[in-house]
Amino acid sequence: MRELKIFAVVAFFSLLTYWLVEPFAHHELHKKLDPQGNELIFKTHGFTYDGTDDIAEAERKGDEALVAKKKAFWSDVVAVSKMEGNAAAGEAVFANCIGCHNGANINMGGVIAPNLDHAGAIYDKNYLIALIKDPAMASNVDHKYADTSMHPMGSIKYTVSDNQQIADVVAYMQAHKAGEISPKETFKEACVRCHAMRYDKMTQLGETPKFKHEKDALSHKIKVLEEQEKVKAYMGNLPPDLSMIIRARGNHFMETFIANPQGQLAGTSMPRVGLNQEGYDKVEAYLTQIGDPSKVKREAIGPWVIGFFFIFTILAFLWKKSHWRDLH
């Protein structure tokens, strides 16, 4: 029985290290502090947005005017979310969006306007409302602008400023711009205009076509480089390629950073994307598919390996007991 006791002790301390000690050590060694030295608290709030994080950040800065501004803004967003929207009326309002959000890959003010074909499925309702009311406030990058109207999409808050119109257009997106969407398409709609994915031949202009002639491939590469320069000028730095991000960062970092980039990297130019839980899950699935394609097989074989070692341990114990029984 001594061997079993040794095994139990080793297993106990291994699990204790894996589930408690290592996560605690990681937290202590990777504390994130705001400019005032306060530890930031990372939450996802289930990928719903009501201004909780934004207001808390303003409070940590000690800026009472900013706190009041954030509270008023998000209070109005929540009020609009409770209004009944008319999808039919919203279709006419949505027509104002097609000029930019048309999938034509035209850079406007630093970045390509995203495709909204599945906006109602992958983005949170509150975020969509907030985005129409004030894009810079909604994406939590208002610190970049003396006047949030200078945001590339800033003019929308003047063209669609009526709360009922906002409720209507969001109702339209949820009714007609939803539907089933693949993980790859979700990534393309939510992320690709800033982040490349070289392991899947994805650039800021989308998937790289197959070219018959080298000069056409070079011409496309020049267009990609030009687009990257525009994004870099707007963001301050070129956003990283995400091919291996799923293996470089843990799930907690991924969730909290996408839900609110400012919480992980105060002052960053990366905007809040506004994905809901479904949208995030699909983006994560695509990142896993490209960055860690063997994960599914690896996890499937795991229980079999554990089972093998469990049976092997029993057989080894019985074999040892059988061969040593005459030595007692």
From TrEMBL:
The chain crosses the membrane at residues 301-319. Keywords: Heme, Iron, Membrane, Metal-binding, Transmembrane, Transmembrane helix. The keyword Metal-binding applies. The keyword Transmembrane helix applies. It comes from the Bacteria. Residues 85-177 form the Cytochrome c domain. It holds the Pfam family Cytochrom_C. One of its GO terms (molecular function) is heme binding. This is Ubiquinol cytochrome C oxidoreductase, cytochrome C1 subunit. It comes from uncultured Sulfurovum sp.
